[in-house]
Design brief:
globular, Small_drug/metabolite_transptr, mainly alpha, transmembrane, EmrE-like, 6 helices, SMR family transporter, membrane
């Protein structure tokens, strides 16, 4: 895999991971809510006007464009497994930003994911 190809894939993955983190930050400011007709309008407005949610959705849109560029250069059987890098990034950043638990079992899983990505990238 060439540096440009890997760079596009990594950029797309990082945008996707950033989107998840921004959406989580947005939901933390909105708080937990129930799905009901009575909540549809007030919660919809909160979601639509939340800067973190808007930022997260924007990251998704840009990541799709970057992903299409990557797929035009790399086989999907190589590119798609690279999305697993997002699990690693999100676990670390969720721990750092939100205080989420990263248990020993999760660390083992992350290690296995990293090994798998390395094997796919080298193939």
């Amino acid at each position: 895999m060439k540096a440009l190809e890997f760079g596009l894939i990594l950029f797309g993955v990082l945008l996707n991971a950033g989107a998840q983190l921004l959406l989580k930050a947005g939901t933390r400011t909105i708080g937990q809510f129930d799905f009901s007709m009575a909540n549809a309008w007030p919660i919809g407005l909160k979601i639509a006007s939340n800067p973190h949610i808007i930022g997260g959705l924007s990251c998704y849109v840009i990541s799709v464009v970057v992903w299409i560029l990557a797929l035009s250069r790399v086989e999907v059987s190589i590119a798609y497994p690279m999305l697993s890098i997002g699990y690693v990034v999100n676990a670390g950043l969720a721990w750092w930003l939100f205080g989420e638990a990263v248990t020993p079992m999760r660390l083992v899983g992350i290690g296995i994911i990293m090994l798998g990505v390395l094997l796919v990238a080298k193939s």
